[in-house]
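C-alpha cells please, single chain.
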Amino acid sequence: MIEFVKGTLVDINTQYVVIDHNGLGYQVFCPNPYSYSSYLEQDVMVYTFHYVREDLIRLYGFQTKDERALFEKLLNVSGIGPKGALAILASGQPEHVVHAIEEEDESYLVKFPGVGKKTARQIILDLKGKLGDFAPNLFKPEVIAISQKTTENKQLEEAMEALSALGYVEKELKKVRPHLKEENLTTDAYIKKALQLMLKG
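Here you go.
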C-alpha cells in the first residue's frame, strides 16, 4: 500500500489533484480537491488509499489519517463504493456523519448522493459503535480569508462542477446556487457552503 504521496501540487481538477514527485505525476482523487487550492505549486503531503479492482486502479487522497480511516470503513459497507464514500467525506463535516450513524439518523445519511434508505440502514448497522475514535479530531478547523473580490463565476462554476462530479444532480445544485451567488468565496468554500445547505435542506 502507498501510505502517502509527497511532492509539488501542480494541478487541481474537479475530482482529483496532481502531485509531482520527482518528475512523476500522481493523480490523487480527493473528497474536495479544491481544499488544496492555497497549496498550488507548493509541496504537500497527502495520505493515500490505493484502491485496486479488476477494472480500476486509483489513488484516493486525504488530509488526515483519520479521514482516510473513515473512508476505508465506509468502503466496507455494502452498497458504498469509493465515489459514494468521497461524497460523504466531501461535506467537510465527518463528525456530523459519525453523529448521524451513532444516533441512527437515516434522514441525514440519505441526503448524500447514491445513499438510499437501504444503504443508510446498512451504514448504521455496520458502523454504529465503531467510530468513537474519529469524532474529536477528524478535521482541523479551517479559516478561509478572502483578500480580494474574485470573479464569482470561475470559483462558483468550479464548485458546481466538483459537486456534480461527486454525484449531486442539477436539481439539487439549482436549489443552492442562488444562496451561493450572494457570497464571495473561494471554490473550496463554495463547495463546503453548498454541501452544508444541501445537508440541511
